[in-house]
Amino acid sequence: MWLSPAKFSLSYTFLKQVRLRRCYCYCYAAPALSRRIPTWSEEPTRVDTHQQKDDRSSSGQLDCGRVLHHLHDLRKEPFLALSFFHQLKRGGFVHDVYTSAAMIRILCFWNLDRKLNSMLSELINKETVREFSVSDLLEALFDGCDVDCTKIISKVSDALVKIHAVDEMFDEAIDVLVRVQQLGVKPSILTCNFLMNSLIESREIDAAVAIYMQLDCFGLQPNEYTCSIVVKAFCRKGCLDQALSIFQTMEDLGMTPNAFAYSTYIEGLCAHNGPDSGYKALQLLIGAKLPVDEFAYTVVIRGFCNQMKLKEASDVLGEMKRQGFVPDVYAYGALICGLCSDGNLLDAVALHDDMLSEGVKTNCVIVSSILQGWSQVGKGSNLLNLFETCKRMGIYLDKVCYNIVMNVCCKLGNMNAVVELLAEMKNKRIVPDVVNYTTVVGGYFDEGKPYEALNVFQEMKENGIIPDIVTYNVLASGFSRLGLTLEVSNLLLYMKDHGIDPNNDTFSVIIEGLCTGGGC
């Protein structure tokens, strides 16, 4: 049964169960700072020029107080202040919480968000030398502001939460939310949404749901996107009844569920109850004239294709068009790839042509499926024609596509074309991987050119690509088929020296190769 967020208390025990264990490490009654920071309205205390010389104290060390006053002097010239701040740091000066807070206030005042994010990212970097915590920084900002305090704290906390979330430092992100609340400032619902979504994508679903349950304690009310995120969370967990209850919560809050929420629920149904269940829900939504988008159809099509129910998937695609929706590359792609996997290559190609005629641009995943299909039925000319056509159309072709074509060229004995394809990949900044290099090595062995194969093997290692057991097995097979028994022995020793244990396939290809090459 779903309970309203208001019915949940902000208890440490509950939060601990869902990774919010550090939220209450702070005391609610924050002590006053022992060192006061100049505010915007104050004029800095002037110091005699002779006393300011080199901005150093009598001990010869930079004085944080003088740095603070210099930053205050430069508050109307933010770029000059930032340059001064960084120049001191490059010179070995370690900024304390007060100089850091002063610089951050300047960036906030002038809405220099990129500079602010960069500075905060550097501050929370684990390798950064600093003697204060994020909590200390927020407290210093709060103490030093007499104008727009809430705005500055909100801006900084929003940035800190997002930076931590992107780096998957979720405990730290949650700490920021709680600390901001303790300072009497409401966190942003948009920032909470961002954090919840990041948690879900990182499979920290319980933590995301827990934040939702505490929104009322933060003084926040969920919006439509918040509820959609929670629907996604429950669907990912397979808690479909709880996901469905969120729609009632939205109605109670006066919200109208959007297409994203419904599509997310349908996706959950397809994943846990099967595509038939998702399709029934989709038809009910359409019948009730509730908001539905292309994604809802796409997830149903994908669900049927995953179960290889290709006729059902094709029927949904047809209904999608009849309802006035234009299928995107993902809807078409799911069915095209399914048809290729099922061996219905002609139907896949026909559907691909229909997709292109509708003005939908193909992608490398779809192209690689069709290329692989042509390769399996021995239609090398069709494969090469499609590859060249896609290049002329400006379609991005990844290393998988290139490897399929390279493999076909190797089988055709056209190693010149293989070398050209390898060079083309490098020119397009597509870094060849171990599979690409292994294909070329095998191609040279098929042509009876072991030294060229070894040269490619050496190039692969020089480029930082670590050979895998498949690569070594190709080498072992090639040497064996050519009767190069000494090279086979040396290869086995080389593998041992590099911590690679030969497997059953290694010895099988050696025996088979020696027999094939007349070495038995």
- Shape annotation: globular
Beta content comes to: under 5%
Q: Cα distance, first to last residue?
A: 73 Å
Radius of gyration, Cα only, in angstroms? Answer: 31 Å
> How many beta-strand segments?
0
Helix content: 55-70%
Biggest beta sheet attributes: none
Order of helices and strands: HHHHHHHHHHHHHHHHHHHHHHHHHHHH
| Unreliable sequence segments | 1-60
- Helices, by number, come to 28
Query: Structural class per helix/strand content?
Result: mainly alpha
Average of pLDDT: 86
Fill in the keyword field for this structure:
520 residues; mainly alpha; 28 helices; 0% strand; globular; disordered N terminus
Report what the structure shows.
- There is one protein chain.
- With 520 residues, this protein is mainly α.
- It has helices at residues 12-17, 49-52, 64-73, 78-90, 97-109, 113-124, 134-143, 149-166, 170-182, 189-201, 205-213, 224-237, 240-252, 259-272, 275-287, 294-306, 310-322, 329-341, 345-357, 364-376, 380-392, 399-411, 415-427, 434-446, 450-462, 469-481, 485-497, 504-516.
- Helix 10 runs antiparallel to helix 11 (205-213).
- The longest helix is centred in the N-terminal third of the chain and has 18 residues, at 149-166.
- It has a domain at 1-44 and 60-253.
- It is built from 28 helices and no strands.
